[in-house]
Amino acid sequence: MVYAAGPPLAEVDTARLDAGVSNTTLDAAFDDIAALAARICRAPVARIALIDRDGSWLQTSREGAFCACAILQSGVFIVRDASADARFASASRATDEPAIRFYAGAPLVLPDGRTAGALFVIDHVPRDLGSEASDSLRALSRLAVTQIELHRSLAKGSGDTHRRLRAEQEYETICSSVAHNLPAPLRAIQGLSQILLADCSDRLPAEGRDYLARIAEAARRMSDQIQALLEYTRVCRAVPRFGPVDLGPVVAEAHAGLRAEFRARDAGMIVDGPLPRVSGDRDMLDLIVRNLLSNAVKFTAPGAPPRVRVRAEEIGSSVRLWVEDNGIGIAPEHQIRLFRVFERLHGTEKDYPGLGVGLAIVRRGAERLGGRVGVDSAPGRGSRFWVDLMKAGPKSA
Asked: Which residues, in sequence order, are CB contacts of 295 under 8 Å at separation 6+?
C-alpha cells in the first residue's frame, strides 16, 4: 500500500483484520484520507499504520512507539516536542534525521473494540495541533475504519447492501463536513490579513507586510483546495440520472467553457469523427470531459503549444472516450497516483497550475456512471487518457 505524503508502509495483513480482501482495494480510500489529514493538519507526512496479527506494527520502526501510545487513547494523542518528552527523547526516532519532533495520532477502533492501527501526522519541528484540526483527524480515523468495514463486508460476500451503502454515505458525509467547516476560519484569516494590510501597512516593516501577504495567499490557496474538495464530494454523493447522451455536444460545450484557458496557452483541439451516444448523466459527463480537457493543456514542455485530440471507439457494450495530448508525459510507476485526490506529479503550482483534484473527479464520476478510467503515457510522448462508458441503446423510431 502507498499512502499520501510519505513513503509506503507494508501491505495490510488482511487476516489480522479478518478482511480477506486484496491490499489494493483499500489503497485509494486510504490515500485520500492520508492526503486530507496532511492538508488539514498542515503536516509534511501523514500515514495510516496497521497492526499485524501478532500485534506488531507493519514496518513502522520510527513511528511505532508513538503509535503504540496513540492506540491506547480514546482521542487524539499529541506529542508537541519529542526531543523534550522523556518517553521519546532518547530514541533514535526522535534524534535521527529527518527527526520526528511532532506527532499527532488517532486510533482506528473497529466496531468490535479491537484497534486496527492509527492515522497519524508528523512534522520535523516542534508544534501544536489546533482543536479543529484535532477533531478533523479523529473524524478521518473513523472514516478509515468505515472503509475497512466496507471492504470486509464486500470480501465476505455478505450481500448486506444496506450496510455498504451506509458506509459509503458516511465516507462522503465526513468529507463533505470537513470541506464545509473549514472555509469560515479561512475567510476570517483572509479578511483580517487584508484589513491589516489596508489599514496598518504604513506602520509595519517591509518584513511584516510580506508575512501578511503570504498569510493571505496561503489562505486563498487553501480556500481553492477546499472548493475543489467540495466539487469532488458533490460528485461522490450525486445520484446519476441516466439517459442517452450525445458525446459530441458534451465535448463541444466543455471546449467552449475552457476557451479562455485554451486561448491563453495557444492550445488547439481536434475531434476525430462523430462521437457516439452513451448512457449516462449529462451533468456528470460535462464535469468529466471538462476536467480531462483542462488537464490536457496544462502539462506541456516550455515553448510547445498544447495539442489535444478527442476520439471514441466502441468496445463491446462500452464506449471508450479518448483525450490525447502532446504533453510531458508520465512515467509508468507514477501513473497509479494520477487519479488520487490532491496528487501532483509535476513540480509546483507555479510551474504547472492545478490542485490535484481534477483527475480524481474524473475517476469518481466515471465510477458513478458504471465506468472506469485509465491512461497510456510515457515521459516525452504525451498522454492518452480514456474513460469507459456504457453504450446507449438504439434510438427509437
From this structure: 323, 354, 358, 359, 362, 385
Query: Residue 50 class from Cβ within 10 Å (0-12 exposed, 13-18 middle, 19+ buried)?
Result: buried
Question: Alpha-carbon distance 389 to 318, whole Å?
Answer: 6
Q: Is the pTM of this model over 0.90?
A: no
Q: What ranges do the domains of the chain cover?
A: 23-174, 183-237, 243-391
Residue 96, φ and ψ in degrees, nearest 5: -70, 160
CA distance 59 to 381: 37
Q: Which CATH superfamily is domain 23-174 in?
A: GAF domain (3.30.450.40)
Q: Which CATH number fits domain 243-391: 3.40.50.720, 3.40.640.10, 3.100.10.10, 3.30.565.10?
A: 3.30.565.10
How do residues 237-249 score in pLDDT, each as one tens digit?
Answer: 778 888 899 999 9
| C-alpha count within 13 angstroms, C-beta hemisphere, residue 132 | 13
Beta bridge mates, 79: 103
In tens, the pLDDT along 150-174 reads 777 666 654 555 555 566 666 566 6
